[in-house]
Amino acid sequence: MLDWKIFAVGSAFFAGITAVLAKIGVKNVSSNLATFIRTAVIIVFLVVVIGFRREWKNPFLIDRRSLIFLILSAITTGLSWLCYFRALQSGPASLVAPIDKLSLVFVVVLSLLFLGERLGIYQWLGVCLIAGGVFVIILNK
User: Fold this and answer.
1) What distance in Å separates the CA atoms of residue 103 and residue 35, rounded to the nearest whole number?
2) If 0-12 CB within 10 Å is exposed, 13-18 middle and 19+ buried, where does residue 96 land?
3) In the chain, where the domains are located
4) Quick one: which of 50, 19, 46 has its CA closest to 34?
5) pTM greater than 0.85 (yes/no)
6) What is the pLDDT at residue 137?
7) 3-state SS record for the chain
């Protein structure tokens, strides 16, 4: 089985490509319509992946707690995408994307508060460097 770190790097790589492609895509399209198109394509793509891997399961048979949290996650994803595409419409991708990556700092804080996760000194240093790096990038704009 592949290590989770490979998938995490893949996620970051594809997110980087996504920012550039989205910036080009929202040039002459409303940010809300762009978000809808992106969502529709993702749905079709995932239907193909789930079908190919034979992973389909009736979502209503999933335990209630998991389903509720997945629905809440979907709503927050949608809100994030709406904000992201709106920011890309008027701001440079080279600044919008780093600000968006402050989500990493929010994840750490929220995982500490709600999941009981703990970080070591090096992880805290990394989080501080990420936050500091974002502020350095946007400081002069």
Assistant:
1) 19
2) buried
3) 4-91, 101-141
4) 19
5) no
6) 87
7) CCCHHHHHHHHHHHHHHHHHHHHHHCCCCCHHHHHHHHHHHHHHHHHHHHHHHCCCCCHHHCCHHHHHHHHHHHHHHHHHHHHHHHHHHHCCHHHHHHHHCCHHHHHHHHHHHHHCCCCCHHHHHHHHHHHHHHHHHHCCC
Could you tell me which residues come within 8 angstroms of residue 112 by beta carbon, excluding any fewer than 6 positions away?
118, 119
Distance CA 102, CA 98 (A): 7
Which residue type is seen at 98? P
How do residues 74-100 score in pLDDT, each as one tens digit? 999 999 999 999 999 999 998 999 899
86 neighbors 31 (Cβ within 8 angstroms): yes
Place of tokens 């240093």: 125
Task: Provide the sign of the torsion angle of the four alpha carbons 58, 64, 69, 72, taken in this order.
Answer: positive
Contact indicator for 118, 112 with CB cutoff of 8 Å:
yes
C-alpha closest to that of 123 among 113, 115, 131, 114: 131
